[in-house]
Write a structure and sequence with these properties.
Layout (H helix, E strand, L loop, with lengths): L1 E6 L8 E5 L4 E4 L27 E3 L5 H4 L11 E4 H14 L10 H6 L1 E3 L5 E3 L2 E8 L6 E8 L2 E5 L13 H9 L4 E5 L13 H14 L2 E6 L4 H9 L6 E4 L1 H14 L11 E3 L5 H7 L1 E5 L4 H9 L6 E5 L8 H7 L3 E4 L8 H11 L3 E5 L7 H5 L3 E2 L7 E3 L1
Parallel strand pairs: 3-4, 4-5, 5-6, 10-11, 11-18, 12-15, 12-16, 13-14, 13-15, 16-17, 18-19
Antiparallel strand pairs: 1-2, 1-20, 2-3, 7-8, 8-9, 9-10
Length: about 400
Amino acid sequence: MDITIHRGTHQIGGCATEYRTRNTRIFIDFGAELDIENAKPFDIEGVTKGKTNCDAVFFTHYHGDHMGLLDTINKDIPLYMGEASKEIAKILNDRLSKAPEIDSYDTKRIGSIKTFQPAQTIVIGDIKITPYMVDHSAYDAYMFKIEADGKSVLHTGDFRTHGFRGKGVKPTLEKYVEKIDALVSEGTTLNRTETKCETENELKKRIKVVLLENKYVFVVCSSTNIDRLAGICSVIPRGRYCICDKYQLSVIEYIRNYAGDKSSLYRFDKALYYSENLDEKMNDRGFCMFVRCGNPEHKRIMEMYKDKNPVVIYSMWKGYLEQRNVKEFLDGYKRLDMHTSGHADSDAIKMVIETVQPDMVIPMHTEAPEAFLELVGDRRVVLANDKEVVKI
């Protein structure tokens, strides 16, 4: 089996990885680069142009850096992703399609995506692909075990172990994946100064204190970071409102219907969408409101409370703070940065390596692939370059 990381060996985002045998060719993810304005053209013969020579594309989750180039894939190539991941991507795309200045995925293509269930193997030609749900800032994210030519590979996608469902990663690997020949692993955080990520539970407790001490709180958070939204919603003080707009509520309602009966965390009992008839009650009782940078209606509501000393909890990657629209949106407000990564820290990556015992480790989704040399010890690390074929 041949592995080719077309993009992602020395960068975060824009992921696209090929797995190939003599008879079958599949891809895991087909993502857009994080810096969209300076993104380079990305074409692959048989996938985005020319006569089709690809049997399927699987998506680990709905983040744009993993599925953002969906609409460039030849129309006759089957696409696969998790059921909830597909629906969240569709809800997001429906909103973006109403904002003509924002590039979005092809809605019709999202609708045609085939879905899979956790731990149920899909056979494409002579390749077997088995998805395993993992903890990530995107709900319904997956690792894939790929088997062909008598070899097995674990493709981690984006994962972590410090989220609400992080404890399940190791038992899943032990029970279903076992030893594999090669590991293709993300290493997003390995060039960052912090060595261990704060857990979602620890973050939730800190946010709870802020909500108790402040009557008016706005939260800047990704609209599809389901666990962050759920964690915050679960600690809003009794009597306070949990407010969002109709789009955000549509995401919440989907998760509520999909997973609310499986975990109380996903019931979102307090969530309401904003309307002007709530203004007086919000002013009187206080609230926590989810807002998005650049949204003029959210900015208008924030301005209504500017003289009441509201707090803005910024719960996203700090790198976005350099963007002009984010700076302008937050200017003049008391900001508290309260966030934890959606990606694996070094301890989580070590745990995966120790659990599945790969003969070969191939770093990707990282700006510091050489950092894997310290994690792996005497095991073989292949520091590949984009488009380089690695044979196992």
